[in-house]
Amino acid sequence: VTNENVIIIDTSTAHRTNEDWAYGYPELGEKFRNKIKNSKRIAVPGCYASGFMMMVYPLVKMGIMGTDYPVCVTALSGYSGAGKKAIAVYESADKTEDLFAPREYALSQQHKHLKEMKAIAGLDREPLFTPVVDDYYSGMIVSFPIYTHLLKEKVTPAELREKFAAYYEGEQFIKVMPFGSEAEGNGFFAANAMSG
What we know:
The structure is a single chain. The chain has helices at about 30-35, 45-60, 85-90, 115-120, 155-165, and strands at about 10, 20-25, 40-45, 70-75, 105, 130-135, 140-145. Helix 2 (about 45-60) runs parallel beside helix 4 (about 115-120). It is α/β, with parallel strands linked by helices. The strands form 2 sheets. Strands 5-6-4-7 form a 4-stranded mixed beta sheet, covered by helices on one side. A 3-stranded parallel beta sheet has the order 1-3-2. The N and C termini lie far apart (about 40 Å).
């Protein structure tokens, strides 16, 4: 028997694409924010999916990118999100040599976040997705290279940055960096610097 007066927050993948559940990402827009406020069932977005959605959802929503765009994403993260067993392996004094290097996985395109990425972003097909786990505790970078000639609206990188800044204006937990800010790190982004 389900008690409708109890709020359930599910952190698994079970309900992220279920229409009866709110997708717990209020920064994506008013539709998401209102559904969360009025729902007793809230599905917490996946980690990689959160980074993905932050970029892809607004592009589709603003009409810049079509739902048929061939999305290809790479994500690099620390090992903390892999769970207690993986943390123990990575932090073991006798870990194997391969754990000292970045390691791609889910190469068969069966990653648990793919269904969520497609459904929430409103894409026609699942993206190609390459997740990589590395030998540091936490922090994540999700990269989505864009072929501008395949976009519905032609925009320059600087214009795209401005559109993202406008989309996320006023959001407490999302900061759109100034155009060209990668120069501060000599052209590099360090995923572990994104921790927290």
